[in-house]
Every structure is written in structure tokens, then in C-alpha cells.
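Q: How would the C-alpha cells look for this protein?
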Amino acid sequence: MMGARDAPLRDFGSRRKPASAYQAFAAMFADLAPQERDELVDGVVAELPVLHVWHGQQLRKQVGNLLADGCPPDQIGYSAFAGPYAIPPLPDPPAVECEDLPPIESYAQPGDSPTPRQEPDTPRYTVVMVGDVLARPAPPERVRGVLPCEGIAAIYGPSKSGKSFLGLDLLDATTTGRDWFGHRVARCQGLYVCLEGAAGITKRAQALRVKRPGALRNVGFLFPPAFDLRSRKDREDFREAAESAGWRRSGILVIDTLSCACPGFDENDSAGMGAAVAGAKALQAALGGLVVLLHHTGKDRTKGLRGHSNLGAALDAAIEVSRDGDDRQWSVDKYKDGEEGAAFCFRLESVQIGSDSEDGEPITSCVVAPVEATTGTPSRSKPPQGGNQRIAYDALSELLRDSRDFGKGNAPPTRPCVSYTAAVATTARRLPVEAKRQPERAKAAITALVGNGCLAFANDWLWLP
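A: Here is the predicted structure in C-alpha cell form.
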């Protein structure tokens, strides 16, 4: 039950929404550490059950959306009430007495104490000139042209496309320093959180060791019985486990999968996906490095990541995995300040890791093996499948006939080539779909042609094999 000091927040549940309740909420939010602010609304609703249900839902959605959209946390105390039910704009609220606030201990870590806000000695904003901008170093990359060293990324695709195998292979490459599909990597630590398909991870690791002795030597594995990315306590326990294992705020953390890491959430709802994104960002802020989420596509694979668009907007990079029979490929679907659309073919190669003790039958698993088609030598060629692929093939054939670029990428010296950007632009204009869908459909058609062996691709150049 609430006492007298909880009166301002209790009043928030009324239709009046008095200024005192608004000020109490804003002051409480400002007192929280940044990583705790995404938990505020759940905490308020849980601690104050007399809140009007409608108000609680609106508060949850507004704050969730604002966090997902990147609203600075110290502004959410004001922004959360924008809309038709907002109270009138207020000047800076006066200091709120401690007894007017709900117990802050409910939201802080043991031993923490709120830090009073201080006026900065320097202006909040500083204008810099172009010379200073140009002098800034380029952000470091973990996989050249594919993944940054820090941020949030995703590897996504339909079920059984091979995204888990690809995620494990990525960790092996970045922790051992080997090039990944021809891309230079910066060596680092790796951590794999296995929430889906945990029974098969041992065999996959054994297969990698058979194929590459010493593989995964700098990769740690976590098999949590329960984990919720949205829970501050789970994230804190996770951080402690990682640091006790030697995590040094630099590396790649793969979470398999996002849906298992957020049990019961509505991924199609803005607030639900917003909470998942906020949890991923909070975990990345606590651990550093790059957090890679394994995720699925929806029923319409051309729409990319399954669920609300909050996820795609929040990512710093995304790798899409697709499959056509035994042919698989991954492509750079998103990379901030980088080239998108490059595609690379691979297959899952069967590796024997032992024999059954009873009948002697071989025990096998799979490892990722790049297909030579990505370097200009396709393993086999299929005719274009479907209308969009045929349109793309005809359009690119015309471009190649008129091309004056030869021997680009890894093509033979006499083979005409066309850039990937020009290929997408030309194909998109010919596809019989609405204009906003043309680029993504063109990329999908060209990617499929590379996977089928109808086109060869390397270093952003296409040519006929």
C-alpha cells in the first residue's frame, strides 16, 4: 500500500494528472542511472497497483516508443506526456522534496545512491567545423565492410536457412583472426548465448574443431536456464558472468535467438519490440562490443526482419541469410556508412565427429563452407527461377553486352562486368511492383541469381560465369 509520500504518483492515476505528479515522475526519472530508466514504467505500474489501467498502458507505450526511437532519457520525463491527454506545458519543475517521491530503492542497485544533477560548466552543445569532422578517425570495424566493432547487429533468415551455423562460424573467424568470406577481421573475444537448439551446439562445436583444429578457442558459451533481455536483473547477472569469464568490453556477443531472449513478447507491437531493443542496447552498454541477435524472417520474406520495424531501425548492421534447396547465401542487408547488398554463397558441409558406440554408424554435424561461386567459379548453374529473376537476368545481360569494364572483382580478364549498384538500379526500374518495393525486390532477384550460379559476384561486381 502507498503512503503519504506516494501521493503525487497516486494522483497520476486520476483524470486530473496534477502538476505535482508530473514533476514527481520527471524527478524520479532523472535520479535513475541510464541503464535503469528503461525499467521505470514496469516498476511504477508494479509498485503502484492503484494506477488507472488505461493510464498505465499509455505510459508504458509512450515511454517504450520514446526509448526505442532514441529519445534522450533525461527528456523522457517531459516527452512521455505529449499527446491529446498531456498536461499543459510546464516550466522547469521546482525541486521536489524527497518525501514526495516513491522509494527510489525499488529501482536502484543495492549500494547505489542517486547522483544529484549538476549544472554543466560548459555549454551542452558545441559546433565544430568541417576540419574537425574530417580529422576524426573512422569508426573501427570488426569485419571489414560487414560489421562494426560496437553496436547492435542481427543475422536473420527463415528457419533452417543456416543462420545459427553462420553465427558460430562468424565467432570462430573473429576470435581466431581468419578472414571471413574474404573479409578482413579484427581479432576479439566471443560469447555465444544458446537459448534455442542448445542440444546441437556441442556437435557443431566438435565439427568445427575437426575441420579447423583450434577453432573457437577464444569463445565462451552460456546456456542459461532462463534469460530475459528486458530484465535489468538478468542483464546484471549476465554481465557479472561475462566479466568473471574474462570479458573485457570488446568482442562479439551472439544471442540465439531474439524471440527466446524475450519470452512472451509481442514482436509485432511497437512497445513490445521497443522493450526488446532497449534491453539489447542496455546489455551492449554494460558489456561493450557488438551484440548480434539471431532472428527470423516473417511469412513474407521480402519484408525482412520479423516483427515491428523498431528493430530494423535500431540496428547498426544486418546480415540476411537465404536458402534455395542446398544453396545458401548471406548478404549485407544493412550497414551504416557501408556498402549494402553484397552477397556470398555457402553450403553446410557434413563432418564426421565420431561413431555410435552401439552400431558404429557415423555421428555427423555441419560446418559453414564458402562456395566458389562467390569468387567467380559457380559450383553449378540453374536457370532463372520466377518472373523477377528472369527480368533481372535479361536486364543484366543487356548491361553486360554494353559494358566496358572487364576483369573486375575476380572475373577473368576478358569477361565484361557490371557494378552491383548499377545492376540493382537497372533491374528495379523494370520490375512490375510498386516503386517503393522495387529496390528490395531487385536485390532479392540478383542475390538469387548469384546463388543459382546464373551470375558470379565478388567485390561488388557481377558477371556471367
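Residues 197 and 256 are 8 Å apart (CA to CA).

The two ends are 74 Å apart (CA to CA).

Upvote if useful.
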